Amino acid sequence: MTVPLLSLSGVSRHFGALAAVDDVSLDIPAGARHALIGPNGAGKSTLFRLVTGAERVSAGTVALDGRDVTRRSEPQRARMGISQTRQHSSLFPTRTVEQNVLLAAQRRHGSPRSLLPRRQRAARDRVRELVADVGLEARLDTPAAALSHGEQRQLEVAVALACEPRLLLLDEPAAGMSPAESARLVALLQALPADVTLVIVEHDLDVVFALADAVTVLHLGRVLLTGSPDEVRASDAVQGAYLGTGREALFLDTDARTEVG
Ligand SMILES: Nc1ncnc2c1ncn2[C@@H]1O[C@H](COP(=O)(O)OP(=O)(O)OP(=O)(O)O)[C@@H](O)[C@H]1O
Ligand SMILES: [Mg+2]
Asked: Which of 40, 92, 163, 259 has a C-alpha 20 to 30 A away from that of 243?
């Protein structure tokens, strides 16, 4: 049996009496395009932070490629290939598009001053390629703060890719994007190399269903269902947690969370 790239086993995170993430077990195979959906407050961003190591689990284990990383720090996990975009921007606002991507590449490969000139050129070429991939080639010298909201999200994807992740976690990358921007984002993510495993949190179900080969529905910190996009669309449980159809789906019952302790 192949080892999943990411394996969560009985993962919980409590904040006082609140079980923000509650006994989540989930295996994500290498190369997956996995979406994580659920209402506001379902625990999606918290679960991402438990995977990156930004937050510690209250219980359970996180394994990357069969190695238990539960006790590893966030920088250690980043070096092992976990990269994420955050729900709230983590760009350097006064730095240009190019500098933002270059800084991320340097965190991975070391400062260019420590590299041979040939390597420095290669690193710069790679940065420009990434910027072009996300459609920002005309904005290379623009400070991040001067980009539109959608462009900032595109830049965040380039920054995450500069870390050469094996596991890329995207938290609401299409939030606030125009339809044209989110279509561009979908095309970019569809073109990611097959060896980059993608887990995406997204409220825009058009984006989710365009990308995902598997979907997990999180509700009140717990996994309601993991299945193929068709299974998730058809599920009574999901229909019960969502009200409405299509991209305007709303969630019910967000206050009925289980209390612990
Ligand atoms: N540091 C914290 N301290 C206390 N409670 C927290 C903390 N972080 C998250 N929570 C709570 O945990 C629950 C899950 O939050 P989380 O941000 O993970 O949800 P989400 O699914 O990402 O929601 P959204 O779709 O709105 O982004 C919420 O009730 C939130 O208020
Ligand atoms: Mg969130």
From this structure: 259
**pLDDT tens profile 230-246:** 998 888 777 766 644 44
Which residue's alpha carbon is nearest to atom 2 within ligand 1? 15
| pLDDT at res. 178 | 85
67 burial class (0-12, 13-18, 19+ CB within 10 angstroms)? exposed
- pLDDT of 236 reads 78
Instruction: Give whole-number Cα distances, 212 to 29, 80, 119, 127, 132, in Å.
Output: 13, 24, 36, 27, 24
Is domain 1-81+165-261 annotated with CATH 1.10.287.3510? Answer: no
| Angle subtended by helix axes 97-109 and 117-133, to nearest 10 | 130
- Domain spans of the chain? 1-81+165-261, 89-164
Residue 42, ligand 1, Cβ within 6 A: yes
Q: Is 44 in the pocket of ligand 1 (CB under 6 A)?
A: yes
13 lines ligand 1 (CB under 6 A): no
pTM: 0.87
**Average pLDDT value for the chain:** 87
Ligand whose nearest atom lies closest to the CA of 171: 2
Rounded-to-5 percentages of helix, strand, coil across the chain? 40, 25, 35
- pLDDT tens profile 154-195: 899 999 998 889 999 999 988 888 888 888 889 989 988 888
Determine the residue of 12, 15, 255 to mutate for testing ligand 1's pocket, defined as the one with the most ligand atoms within 8 A of the Cβ atom: 15
